[in-house]
Structure formats: structure tokens, C-alpha cells
Amino acid sequence: MATHAAEEVPEGGGAADAPPVNGKGRVIVASLVGTSIEFYDFYVYATAAVLVFPHLFFPEGDATAATLQSFATFAIAFIARPFGSMLFGHFGDRIGRKATLVASLLTMGVSTVLIGLLPGYAQIGVVAPLLLALCRFGQGLGLGGEWGGAALLATENAPRRKRALYGTFPQLGAPIGFFLANGVFLALTSTMDDGAFLSWGWRIPFLLSAVMIVIGLWVRLKLHETPAFTKAQKSGQIARLPLLQVFKTSTGAIVLGTLIMVATYVLFYLTTVFSMSYGTSPEPGGLGYSYTPFLVMLLVGVVFFGLFTPVAGLVADRYGRRPVLIAITVAILLFGVVMGPMMDSGSTALVQLCLILGLSLMGLTFGPMGALLPELFPTNVRYSGASIAYNMGGLVGASLAPYAATWLAAEYGLWAVGGYLIASAAVTLAALLLARETRDDSLDEIPASAR
């Protein structure tokens, strides 16, 4: 049994020749600040895909068609993210977590700033959406490498019995980034008219990313390498080709991790991107809210997302990842039954409650993922494996979610959107039932079969 003293240091720490250890505060700040910036960049695009891009980057015509085209460019990032996870995962497992995290942050940030500088369709024609798609691909490439590194930074520096709690630090970047991105848009749309906003105001959130990148780089360059990677490096157990190695030794973990993430992604993008589009579309094809009041309702829901994320980590540390996530996934499935009737009720109070319930469940299911996915893989391929599973889950669960939900709502109504969420939750539930519990696994040990 581990002693109390052993619980106060990260795995791999405590020995006389132990590598420098990042303090708890530094781990929290570095993992939280980085993912907050990355998710800010990602969600700035998601909001603009609803409010701006259909009007400025695509030819005039059918409004629904323009929105669907905009959502198609939104999906490009999810195609790019697995490639980013493979690229950055290779270097994260070969040269270390720290340098790779810096590179992923720069990739994401530069792509975001460039979007803020792009001319529209009226200026350069069809080249405009092509450049937009290219920059969106860059965003996805950067985020593909970001999450895995941030999750490993947190969990590989954590005491074993607090790994799920530490793993929620990068997860909190999602609600914080969403709140910042949409808060900026809310401030802009509340203080300028539509003409000024569409002319130049929409660019401000993208250009602000440059300031945030500098802050993120400053924080991350002060980090030490994680103890688990340093130990593997000193013992000569670094994989020469991590991408090939992870598929050779951990294919089952990649598949299970991907499917475990599906419901999380579908739930989030239905309750944010799709709900924003549907909520602000005119009746009868939408709820008919104006942008500002609906965004305020959404931000209220995101507060609950943030509050429940660390709660889920604490519970998963006490009871285990698998039973907690099984219970939450069943709750998501039940939420899919009531989501459509609540959103289509005509009651603002019920719509608000629907957003709160959905985003509370999002916090509960997203929180433990920061520990669960890294725990599925050995140290020498952990960056690659966790990143690939996380981002393949995004490709399967999120890339088409806003597009598919928009089409389902238009063709069949909101009950079909709820059915889409139910089907996604069923997939994740099946994967969780097949998965093993990982709470008591060591992040330092590399099984002989994985070398």
C-alpha cells in the first residue's frame, strides 16, 4: 500500500536522483492557460461560423445552404486533428511533452490570427473560403497536439490518487475558452451595430489570440519535463517510431478511447454550436431568439459546465473512472429523450434549463477524460495514443454534429436531434462496458509488450 508521503509527490518523484518536479501551481497554470487559449481559438471560429462566415465567405443565396457550408469548414478542423495528434504525438513521445506543447500552441495561434486578417468573398471570390478552410485546418492541427500534451502534463505530474482531479485542469480550458470567446463576441455585438461588426468588428476576437499566445508561451517555457517521460528517457525506453508502436501495442485502447469520447463530443456541439444556430434562426425553422439573449443563456449553461468538471474528477478519483462514466453516459442518454421537447417547448425557462442540464452533463463526462485516456497507454506512446483517441473521437462525434443536427432538425424536427444524441450515448456506453478500470494503474511502468 502506498504511504501518505508517496501520495504527496508525482509518480517517479521522491528518489534522490529524481528529476526536477513541477509544483502544483505551475502544473495547474500551464495546463489550464494553454488549453484555455487553444479552446478560445477553436470556439471563436465556432461562433463566427454561425454569425459571420455564412455572410462574408460564401456567395449570397440560400441562408441555410450558406450556414451548412460554413459548418462544413468548421468540420475540417476535426479532420485535421487526428493528423495533428499523430504529428505532435510523435515528437511528444520522442523529445518530450514541454517542447511539443509550445509548438502546438504556436500552430493553433498563428492559424487563428491569420483568420482575422483574411479578405472575404466580395474581395477575392472563391479563394476566400479556400483560405478560410486552410486556416481552419491549421487550427485543427494545433489542437490535435495540444490536448494530449496538456493532459499528460497534468496527470504525469499528479499523485496517483489525485490523477483524475489533476486531469480536470486542462479540461477546464474548454468552458473557460468558450466563455472568453463568446464573451468577447457578446461585448462586440452589444457595443457596435451590425454593419460595423460584419465589416471589421468580427476580426477582433481572432487578433486578440496573438496576445494570449505570448502569455501561454511564457508560462509553458518555464516548465520542467514530466517525471514519467524523464524516467522513460533515462531508462532508454523511448519508442523510436511512436505512431507505429502505439498501433502495434495499443490498437484496442485507441478504439475504446475513441468510442468513449463520442457522446461527450456530440453532447457538447449539440448544446453549443447547434443550439446557437437553431436558437437564433427565425421561426418556424428555429426558436427565433436574437443573438445576444440566447448567448447569455448559453453562457449561463457553460458556468455549470465549468463547475461540474472538477466535481467529476473528485468523484472519479474516489469511485473509479469506469463506474462514474457509465452512470453519466446513461444520464446523457436520458437527456436525449427530453432535449427536443424542452428546446421546442416555447418556454424560455425550459430552454435555459435544457442548456444547463446538457452542459452540466458535459462537465461530468468531460472531466474524467483527462485522466482516463492517458491511463489507457504506456509512457512511451502515451502522447500519441491519448491524442489519437481523443481526436478520433472528435472526428467521429463532433465533426458532423452541427451539420447533421441542422439537417435532422430541418427534415424531421428536434426529436430526431435527440435521437442522434441517444445513439451516440449508446455507442459510448458499449465502449465503457468493454473498458477496464484504470484508476490504480501506474503511469511510470511500461509493460514489456509495449516496448
Give a structural overview.
The chain is mainly α. It has a single domain (24-222, 239-442), classed as MFS general substrate transporter like domains (Growth Hormone, Chain: A, Up-down Bundle). The protein contains 22 helices and no strands. The chain is globular, with a radius of gyration of 21 Å. The relative contact order is 0.16. May be a proton symporter involved in the uptake of osmolytes such as proline and glycine betaine. Keywords: Cell inner membrane, Cell membrane, Membrane, Symport, Transmembrane, Transmembrane helix, Transport.
Overall mean pLDDT: 86
Q: What is the H/E order?
A: HHHHHHHHHHHHHHHHHHHHHH
Label the overall shape. Answer: globular
**Biggest pleated-sheet summary:** none
Tally of helical segments: 22
Return the CATH class.
Answer: Mainly Alpha
| Low confidence ranges | 1-8
CATH overall fold name: Growth Hormone, Chain: A
* Distance N to C terminus: 27 Å
State the helicity in percent bands: over 70%
Under the CATH scheme, which architecture would be assigned?
Up-down Bundle
User: In CATH, what is the homologous superfamily?
Assistant: MFS general substrate transporter like domains
How large is the share of residues in beta strands? under 5%
Based on helices, strands and strand pairing, what is the structural class? mainly alpha
Q: What is the tally of beta strands?
A: 0
Number of domains: 1
Rg, rounded, reads 21 Å
Protein name: Putative proline/betaine transporter
Subcellular location: Cell inner membrane
Domain Major facilitator superfamily (MFS) profile: 27-442
GO molecular function: symporter activity
